[in-house]
Amino acid sequence: MKPIIGVTSNLEDHNLSISMDNIHSLLNAGAVPIVVPNLLDDDKIEKLAETLDGLLLTGGGDIDPTLFGEEPHQKLGSICPERDTFEISMIQKMLARDKPILAICRGCQILSIALGGDMYQDIFSQMGVPLLQHGQKAPRWHATHFVNVKRDSLLHRVTGMQSFKVNSYHHQAVRKMPENFEVCAEANDGVIEAFESKKHRFALGVQWHPECMTQKSDDPSKAIFDAFVKACSQ
Prior knowledge:
Layout: E1 4-7, E2 10-12, E3 15-17, H1 20-28, E4 32-35, H2 42-51, E5 54-57, H3 81-96, E6 101-104, H4 106-114, E7 119-120, H5 123-126, E8 145-149, H6 154-159, E9 163-166, E10 173-174, E11 181-187, E12 192-197, E13 203-206, H7 210-213, H8 219-233
Parallel strand pairs: 1-4, 1-5, 5-6, 6-13
Antiparallel strand pairs: 2-3, 7-10, 8-9, 8-11, 11-12, 12-13
Helix pairs in contact: 2-3, 3-4
């Protein structure tokens, strides 16, 4: 049977929204995607986590810094408290069941925070070193900078590559790793580009947007979605 994978969504002015690139990438990998609302009822979240085979945490806006003990930085963008609360609860409930998670851009940041890690609110003003262009001016499907992948990591096994190019649309990034997770890819400027669980079957966060690149038959992006859906099927 095809796995049922929950796909998180943006919430703005009482409207849910999501890029269809996420849906198409899951469909092409053989999954049945279900867009999940930003519920706040814990019993319903529990039922949802029990029902789903996996969770795709999608990109979106910024994250409330008080969730990791910081005041809002001047460069902090718009936040959605309902989404933050919902996704943190979903992450914890899915991983408690060892159900696979693929976390993209904002998704990888909320994955870190849900498990005790933290993040830069704005890499360009907080990292203190010259950075690459992490908010590219190229089309979303175009890869613009390289990531260096840790040998023998999950990401390395999935893609079969130690270096490849990715797209980039972010001003925030993961800083401190949560317990039982480790960095598995970095950009040449030191920005964490991917991290993964050492404890769970499949829990992978990537800072770029592979869903935008699968439509152009990008091999690493397709491999990531194929491996995620396969893990959800087991």
